[in-house]
Design brief:
Layout (H helix, E strand, L loop, with lengths): L1 H10 L4 H4 L11 H10 L5 H57 L5 H36 L3 H4 L14 H15 L1
Helix pairs in contact: 4-5
Length: 180
């Protein structure tokens, strides 16, 4: 096992941008787990088992950070679409009120208020665009690619399927157990 693990590590390549996420200080295997491992695989070297857990933990952390970056990118895209729709609505309302004020149907104070109302969603839109830029930069850094190449990615939010009856029963049993 030790030679297999050493050979795997020699051929493993970790991107430099992800290398800083591999700061595992140590993995501790409990005495009960050591007895179990000894009974299941008596020839197993516990240091190799610890190293495998450490590599798996590091890979899981990088995976989670990548999923978070992708989710941030997808969410910011949705925020931009929503904010743009609100900006368009407020501009249309502003144009209508300004026409009415120019015709004398409404006072100028209503037109000024409509202009102020139209400027608020612009701030929300700019903040969403800034979050999208930050999400693209974070994703590019994690993938160790230029930011321009991230723009070519199409990112969609994963759709979770609803749980079936067996999964619901398991979740409710687990919740009852935790509550007790």
């Amino acid at each position: 096992l030790v030679s297999q693990f050493a050979a795997t590590l020699r051929h493993a390549v970790v991107p430099s941008s992800a290398a800083r996420h591999l700061r595992i200080t140590r993995v501790v295997i409990s005495p009960k787990a050591q007895v179990y491992i000894g009974s299941v695989a008596p020839e197993a070297d516990l240091n190799v088992v610890k190293a495998r857990y450490a590599v798996a933990d590091a890979a899981w952390k990088v995976r989670q950070q990548l999923r978070q970056a992708l989710a941030d990118l997808a969410a910011s895209g949705e925020e931009i679409a929503d904010a743009q729709g609100l900006v368009d609505q407020r501009r249309a309302y502003q144009a209508l009120i300004e026409k009415r004020a120019a015709a004398g149907e409404d006072p100028q104070s209503v037109a000024v208020q409509a202009r102020l109302d139209a400027s608020a969603p612009l701030e929300t839109l700019m903040q969403a665009q800034a979050r999208q830029s930050q999400a693209r930069a974070t994703l590019a850094q994690m993938l160790n690619v230029p930011v321009a190449s991230v723009d070519a990615l199409t990112v969609e939010r994963p759709v979770d399927s609803p749980p079936d009856a067996a999964q619901l029963a398991t979740m409710s049993d687990r919740a009852l157990y935790v509550r007790a």
